[in-house]
Design goal:
- This protein is α/β, with parallel strands linked by helices and about 400 residues long.
- It has 2 domains: about 220 residues, Mur-like, catalytic domain (UDP-N-acetylmuramoyl-L-alanine:D-glutamate ligase, 3-Layer(aba) Sandwich), CATH 3.40.1190; about 140 residues, Mur ligase, C-terminal domain (Protein-Tyrosine Phosphatase, Chain A), CATH 3.90.190.
- It is about 45% helix and about 20% strand.
- An 8-stranded mixed β-sheet has the order 4-3-2-5-1-6-7-8, sandwiched between helices. A 7-stranded mixed β-sheet has the order 13-12-11-14-10-9-15, with helices on both faces.
- It starts with a helix and ends in a 5-residue tail after the last strand.
Length: about 400
């Protein structure tokens, strides 16, 4: 048998296997009545949790998956199972969870989109065939994959709108562009107005109302709109608002606000303003910026933004891109005596380090990246301090 013949047979075998895989996935997809894919720049994990909680309160089996730094499967009973990855995240995770949903005959599958590049975003949509496509918002992030302009980022997310889907979004800024892309796919857009959706509802003081409003709108879009659904989403909102840790030393109160998962400047600015008002504006403020070497543009943007915040007590740098961040701050004329570069040992004793820097009551805000030192620092402060979730 010639080499050419062997090569052709091998190619045919591969194509046959791919065809079998595709047919098998479609079969499992068809077994799940409600399929929801949550995309956007900020709030994907949060909205996924809220939607799953809302639908679960209806009594129907719901399977959900969070793709964040701690990838997690939320089982139909609400229990959580952390995904132990070997290597980098792959789209195959979405296929595996979809097959599980089909095998177990869940009523609803809620998946956080895990792709960043435009090609993989579109692939996820084609594979999972969601009836509901959520766009939480479109903001400046992931420039390396999504592009450096607003138009490129909008196209990356909107070009993945599935054919004939219902698009739920609270992104007012890009509403007209989202509609234009949706029209090309014969999709319907549900534009969410958080003020109208949440009228008369009191949220946890630092919750983003857009996330709660979108989750309620998604549940309504699939036919579930009741007081019980709203209450379940609000309860999940309160349970997930685990941002604040307080501790005291020598008469000084330190409040650490975990915003490491807030990794675009626009959202960070809102987060900082909301929490400053919630905790009190008469306190010193300090920023901990956790950096990543593979996110140089994010490092530059956050460092430049930190340099513009008036009256900061100091800026603590952690992570894998500290020298670059320090140079950016220096170029922005930040006093070197206000820049602190922490080692792993200092992160491990974060509470003591912060107390040594405080001369009065102080609010400390973590931004940039939750991965790596962000997670280590969060755990160190949570374990050392007194959890004051929801306290102001």
């Amino acid at each position: 048998m010639s080499t050419l013949t062997i090569s052709l047979l091998f190619l045919l075998g591969v194509l046959l296997l791919l065809l079998i895989e595709a047919v098998d996935l479609r079969r499992h997809v068809a077994c799940i009545p409600i399929r929801i894919l949550v995309n956007g720049t900020r709030g994907k994990s949060t909205v996924t949790r809220y939607v799953a909680a809302g639908l679960r309160s209806s009594g129907l089996p719901v399977l959900a998956k969070i793709t964040g730094v701690v990838p997690t499967v939320i089982q139909p009973d609400g229990s959580q199972e952390i995904i132990r990855r070997r290597g980098r995240a792959r789209v195959q995770e979405q296929i595996c969870i979809t097959r599980k949903g089909g095998r177990t005959r869940v009523n609803s599958l809620v998946l956080e989109c895990m792709s960043i590049s435009p090609d993989l975003l579109r692939l996820e949509g084609r594979l999972l065939q969601p009836q509901i496509y959520v766009i939480t918002n479109i903001r400046d992030d992931h420039r390396e994959q999504m592009g450096t302009t607003d138009e490129e980022r909008v196209e990356a997310i909107c070009s993945a709108i599935p054919e004939g889907a219902i698009v739920v979004t609270a992104d007012e800024k890009h509403a007209s562009v989202i509609r234009r892309f949706a029209d090309l796919k014969r999709a319907t857009v549900v534009a969410v107005n958080p003020h109208e959706e949440l009228e008369g509802i009191e949220l946890f003081h630092a919750e983003f109302p857009e996330n709660v409003a979108v989750a309620i709108a998604v549940c309504r879009a699939v036919g579930f709109d009741s007081l019980r659904i709203r209450e379940a989403i609000l309860e999940e909102s309160r349970r997930q608002s685990d941002y604040l840790v307080r501790f005291d030393r020598e008469g000084r109160n330190i409040a650490f606000v975990n915003g490491f998962s807030v990794n675009d400047v626009d959202s960070a600015r809102v987060f900082l303003e909301q929490w400053t008002q919630a905790i009190g504006e008469d306190r010193d403020r300090m920023i901990i910026l956790n950096t990543r070497r593979d996110r140089p543009l994010r490092t530059a943007e956050f460092a430049a933004w930190c340099a513009t915040i008036a009256g900061l007590k100091g800026i603590v740098l952690t992570g894998t891109h500290v020298p670059y961040a320090r140079r950016v701050l220096s170029r922005q004329n930040v006093d070197r005596s206000k820049i602190y570069c922490w080692s792993r040992a200092q992160i491990a004793r974060a509470r003591e380090e912060l107390c040594s820097l405080a001369t009065s009551d102080m609010s400390v805000f973590g931004f940039g990246n939750i991965a790596g030192d962000g997670m280590s620092l969060s755990e160190a402060l949570r374990n050392q301090g007194q959890d004051a979730k929801g306290a102001a």
